[in-house]
UniProtKB/TrEMBL annotation:
Obligatory cofactor(s): FAD
Protein name: Glucose-methanol-choline oxidoreductase C-terminal domain-containing protein
Organism for this UniProt entry: Heracleum sosnowskyi
UniProt entry tagged with the keyword Flavoprotein: yes
Keyword Hydrolase: no
Gene3D superfamilies, per database record: FAD/NAD(P)-binding domain, Glucose Oxidase, domain 3
One GO MF term attached to the UniProt entry: oxidoreductase activity, acting on CH-OH group of donors
Tree of life domain: Eukaryota
Domain called Glucose-methanol-choline oxidoreductase C-terminal: residue spans: 48-193, 237-382
SUPFAM superfamilies: FAD-linked reductases, C-terminal domain, FAD/NAD(P)-binding domain
Lineage, opening ranks: Eukaryota, Viridiplantae, Streptophyta, Embryophyta, Tracheophyta
Alphabetized InterPro entries for the sequence: FAD/NAD-bd_sf, GMC_Oxidoreductase-Related, GMC_OxRtase_C
Keywords: FAD, Flavoprotein
Amino acid sequence: MRAISGFGQSPSTIHYTHDNSSSLEEQNEELPHEAYNAGSLLFKISDPLSTGELTLNNTNADDIPNISFNYFSNPQDLQTCVNGYHILEKLVKTKYLIELMQPSNDTFEKLLKFTVNETVNLIPRTADVTESLEKCCRQALVTIWHYHGGCLKGKVINSDYKVLGAQGLRVIDGSTFVQSPGTNPQATLMMLGSGFGQSPSTIHYTHDNSSSLEEQNEELPHEAYNAGSLLFKISDPLSTGELTLNNTNADDIPNISFNYFSNPQDLQTCVNGYHILEKLVKTKYLIELMQPSNDTFEKLLKFTVNETVNLIPRTADVTESLEKCCRQALVTIWNYHGGCLKGKVINSDYKVLGAQGLRVIDGSTFVQSPGTNPQATLMMLGRYMGTKILRKRLGQAAGV
């Protein structure tokens, strides 16, 4: 995943706040491909006190802005990083990790050097990098994938995410965050942007409906979202959808028929999921978090249907059966796939059929979505294919 760090950046647009004496190229140290057949232990400096700066060179959106990350401009962040390495050192010496490697007295020092060399960033290296943990912190750091803070409220957007001074333009992504969430922000971002970008003309349904959500005129208060969620997923559904292009313009939205529950077995799986949720709601651990009554689960069902953001019209009798709840409260859970399948759009090398110099390597090539967030799977797939392409074109000269 770190292999993509630094792309889209150039030394002229990134500034550092510490001294460096030699570049990574000058060291001429290469890592064998086998070095990546390993796991990673990472730590994150959450809520750093150091702040960066982003300025535009001009009004051309294609031009890269000037970015000053100002890493460790606040010394407390540097101390936090050093503490992180101390924790990693203790972990490396635990019996569980010792069983996975052949440790020696200088194992941790070797791991530090490997970490600095393996991290992909534009920060020049010094030969004495392992002399102190402070130097390791400065040279092995990387913004951990999820950039944020470039479009803050009051500076670029207003409280409705509308860009200041522009008409018909909003920004709804991680650049609006003051701080990045402690975990992968995908779910947070999808929740934030739920409903944007959809249009009724591009989504079709395969079940009857009698009234639309707009006709009900039911609004949820902001406080309704100050809560947790219990979700279940219909893994490996038997129902399949259909995607067709309107034309050859890549900017035009295709026609999508999800065909939810066209196979009745999927509907039964959904009903079984609600039965499990009903049992969970009645456990002592969740009862302590709310004041349950005889109709608590029915209220939760109605809330679930109303709270779910999709374009499926609602019926007034939605809580009469779990089947109706399934049909009206469903949503494709963020990670779309299946639009570019092998043999239909791409071949086994991910090359687009009938096109030259074009590959698709993303979630659209999956027949089924992984059971968890697919980000790591996709990044691993992208790295593997990138390495494979380089080896085929350059051979040993590829260095990977």
